[in-house]
Amino acid sequence: MKSDIWKPGTLRLFLAALTAVVGVATSIGLVAGQAQQAGERGAGAAAGQGRGEGRGRGPAMKLSDPVITDPAIQNGGIDLHAHQDPDSNGPSYGQAARSDDAMDLYERAKAAGMRGFVIKQHLDQSAGLAYYMRKLHPDMEIFGGMGSNFTTGSKVNPWAIIHMTEMKGGWGRIVWMPSWDSENSSHKVGNYMTTLAPRRAPYFDPPFVSVARCADGGRFWANYPKPCTGDLLPEVKEAIKVIATTRTRDSNGDLILATGHNSPEEVLMMIKEAVKAGVKHTIITHPLLDVVGMTPAQIKEAVALGPEIYAEFVSPFGNQDPSSPIVKETVEGIRAAGIDHAFVSSDTGQINSVFQPDALAKCAKVLRASGFTEQELAKLFKINPARILGIAPPAAATTR
Question: Which of 21, 47, 101, 105 has the maximal Cβ count within 10 Å?
């Protein structure tokens, strides 16, 4: 006999209470750590990271604000990069506190007419949360994923990927390579070596997670900003092999490689290895953000390496006038990737940012004003995200 806790109403109350407890603990930690976090990643710009977490994602919104929507996300829109609570916020990472939780996001996504979203976390796997959310809301395509930072070990961890695939439901699909803790971030993020690295030093040496090494065995970025001639680390190749060959429990889904906060040189190596290993779908994680820093030419080179490689473009440009440099750069990047190899995600959910569905709608409006057709917008917001997740395109959308 099933316990009454699994009834939707009881489960909702249980999760709400759990979220409230997490929220209280997070609030206490936030107040205690505010002085320590001044100048670090938090509610605002990510120090030294240009258009990184927080920057350009405002203005702040309240959950009571009317939902901004657009035909480009109605009846099929999917957000593949939606930050949300429960998530961590404290001095160990200094990442921004989150503006909404998974249940809040469901309500707003439903009101906006969206089809689904991926619960994005840098530090934990979210397959379990996706399972619960689907039990509560079977009308929404909700997926999870996992990061590859120090919370999964001092190296990229293939075993952690296998663990995620065995979670009940099998809704964890995207595997992000190192982001907050990447070797590239240790150079690109302004306060990494001065503030974040010393916090890691008692536990990890070196204080970052590498994906590649030089031919002589040295660190890939030992002579930053000049990379060496090198190759991916064995554990990264093994992780990519796991992504290529392992399907998820129950739902039998393919895994997706996302390249994380790594340099153009490292991204290209990962994509080449993914194509060689047979990874079904690969995401180039926000290539235009400064922490990655790819040029349109490099984006074009990357997507040309295989048939199912997609460049991700994230929402700060949606807060700009269509004539602004960031919009022009985004348009150039999308055109370089090709409309069949690009998609738009929010990458919001930070405190003081536009909510995720609203951010997507604003992006669609800016792209429409920049000359994108309705068919192109359908690919960027509906069709391509569905293809990446391995689910059917929305019935009303025009397919390839």
Answer: 105
